[in-house]
Give the backbone structure.
Amino acid sequence: MQNLTSAPARPPTTTQAPAELSLEDRLALVDAAMTVKLDEAAVAFEVNTAHIPAEVVDLADAITVPLEPAPHPLPDLYPTPVAALLQRAHHRLVTDGWCSGALIDERGARCLLGAIRKEAGGDQGLETRGIQVLTDAIRRKFREVDSVPSFNDSWANSRIPMRMLEEAASLADARAM
C-alpha cells in the first residue's frame, strides 16, 4: 500500500555539487546570522524590561575621585637643557593643571607658555629656545598656528597641548638642544 502523505520519490539529478564557499563568504554568512540573533535578543531585552522603571543617573554623582591627588614623580629628565625644560613644563602641567586664556589662573593652573616660563626660572635664552621648539612641533601637525598662546587657547581641554609639549621635548632631544 502506498503512503499518501509522502511525496513521490524523485529520480536523482545529475547536477554538479555546489562550489565550496570561501572563508570570506562563510564569515559573511556567520556575521549575518549573528546580527539577526543579536537584533532578536535586543528586542527581547526591551520587551522583558519595559515594565521596570528606569532612573537616570548623573555621572557626576556616581563617579568620584580622590580628594588629594597622588603626587606625580618627575620622570627622568632628558640630558639636553631645552628638552629637559619642556619635560619639566609638561610635568608642571600634570601636577598643577592646565588652563587657557591666562598664563596662570586662580587655581594655579598654567598654560603652555606659563609652564615653560615657570620652569625656565628666568633664563630668557632657555625659555626662547623652548618656545621655538614647541612652535616647530606644533606647526608640524597644525600648519597655520600663529603662536603658542593662540594654540593653547584654541583647545577646550589639555589633551592636545600636553601631547604637543611631549613631542616638543622629544624633538629638542633629537636636535640635541
Q: What stands out?
A: The CA atoms of residues 46 and 143 lie 49 Å apart. The chain has a mean pLDDT of 84. The radius of gyration is 32 Å. DSSP finds seven helices and no strands in the chain.
